[in-house]
Design goal:
alpha/beta; FAD/NAD(P)-binding domain; D-Amino Acid Oxidase, Chain A, domain 2; eight-stranded mixed beta sheet; 26% strand; binds flavin-adenine dinucleotide
Length: 381
């Protein structure tokens, strides 16, 4: 069988792409070595915050929030808009935070700068000792990213996309600098265009196919508590200097982030959270949320994100290889960035003008550079 488009990887990015290409008269096949959402997407904390170090992401997050709300099949789905509070105890962050608030407001995002006592009067459930200031974006929220991913995939299937699950691509087949299909254990799937959206496995798959790109997988972690009795209503909360965050999770809390800055091996990384992280985040959460003093960590996990030199993803056609596209390198922000950039790539593949211009994300922008440091995407600067 021959596809017009073969998508490798059914995470949030590949599944959203399949959904946006479906119902357009194309033969689209979505392949995954596993099942939709079992990579980083199902391991994500699902935070959708407008607070970013650049304006592209402010717009992308808003689009992702709208898309998640649109997908929600019932009132309990969609974005849980509890707001996002980012705080600091460092003087040097204050001017940057003030400036960011101007940017957010200019982009149409509701945002408030809070200083000193304002933090404790607005958020009495959070112990703000030692904190100097914060920014609150009340319309931000979180989603169940596994649910979003599997909804994109199942709607794509309903609209005619062929699903090839349990089908791990070995390489992209090339002929005379043109991608002609995907090599799988079940044989070759011929395709006019191949999109590699394989998350942390993208760099090795591209290397195998002779088209390396500057992408580095790195490990990050999350934990959840058992239900906490009388837990107050809390926003998503991120304490900058400590690099820790929490958000409500059913009747308990979800906590992160334990990001490592070394390149990880997707073939054999530790999928469990580190024991040291259990103790560290539990101590921090009970310090900041006194009502959670009896909270017990129920489980934890680790997943892989993918870094790029400038912390922006790679989206578009790989230079000098006709028909080979990449949709990866979300730098830990793939629930925010993935769905809108997948939609824009689908629009480009369908010959339409993309909602988000893809030039800033062009995969060829680094000219082969791969000597870069892994830096977090989820931060103030
Ligand atoms: C602990 C944690 C917390 C996070 N929190 C947030 C957050 O709050 N907000 C946010 O925006 N982002 C967050 N992220 C990041 C976000 O989860 C990722 O950026 C996003 O899920 C990446 O999606 P993806 O589709 O690119 O990759 P993935 O979800 O990893 O999907 C890749 C898919 O490709 C498949 N695959 C791999 N190799 C092959 C192959 N050879 N053949 C076929 N299929 C293959 C895999 O099985 C997988 O299903 C978090 C990540 C982690 C780990």
């Amino acid at each position: 069988m021959k596809a017009d488009v073969a998508i490798v990887g059914a995470g949030i990015a590949g599944s959203a792409l399949a959904y946006h290409l479906s119902g357009e008269g194309l033969h689209v096949t979505l392949l995954d070595g596993d099942y939709p959402g079992l990579g980083a997407s199902g391991r994500s904390a699902g935070l959708l915050t407008s607070q970013h170090w650049n304006r592209f992401d402010v717009a992308l997050t808003r689009a992702s929030q709208e898309m998640c709300d649109h997908l929600a099949r019932d009132e309990e789905g969609g974005v849980q808009r509890v707001g996002f509070l980012r705080v600091t105890s460092l003087e040097e962050d204050i001017p940057v935070m003030r400036e960011r608030v101007h940017t957010y407001l200019k982009e149409g995002v509701m945002a408030e700068f809070l200083e000193g006592e304002e933090l404790s009067s607005r958020f009495p459930s959070i112990d703000s000792s030692g904190l100097l200031a914060g920014v609150f974006t009340p319309q931000d929220g979180y989603v169940d990213a596994y649910d979003i991913t599997s909804t994109f995939a199942s709607l794509a299937r309903e609209r005619g996309v062929a699903m090839a699950m349990g089908n791990k691509a070995k390489a992209v087949e090339m002929r005379s600098s043109k991608a002609v299909g995907v090599e799988t254990p079940q044989g070759e799937l011929s395709a006019e265009a191949v999109v590699v959206a394989a998350g942390a496995w993208t760099p090795s798959l591209l290397r195998e196919s002779g088209t390396p790109l500057p992408l580095k997988p790195y490990r990050t972690q999350a934990l959840v508590t058992a239900p906490v009795t009388d837990l107050p209503i809390l926003p998503m909360f991120h304490e900058l200097p400590r690099g820790l965050y929490l958000r409500p999770d059913q009747d308990g809390l979800l906590l992160g982030n334990g990001t490592e800055h070394d390149e990880a091996d997707p073939g054999g990384y530790n999928t469990h959270a580190d024991f040291e992280l259990y103790a560290k985040v539990a101590a921090w959460a009970t310090e900041r949320v006194p009502a959670a003093k009896d909270a017990r960590i129920a489980r934890g996990w680790a997943g892989l994100c993918v870094a790029t030199p400038d912390r922006f993803p790679l989206v578009g056609e790989v230079e000098e290889v006709e028909g080979l596209f990449v949709l990866a390198g979300f730098n830990g922000l793939g629930v925010m960035r993935g769905p809108p950039l997948a939609r824009s790539l689908a629009e480009a593949l369908l010959g339409r003008r993309p909602t988000f211009e893809l030039a800033p994300f062009h995969p060829g922008r680094f000219e082969g550079r791969d000597d870069f440091r892994i830096r977090e995407g989820f931060t103030l600067r």
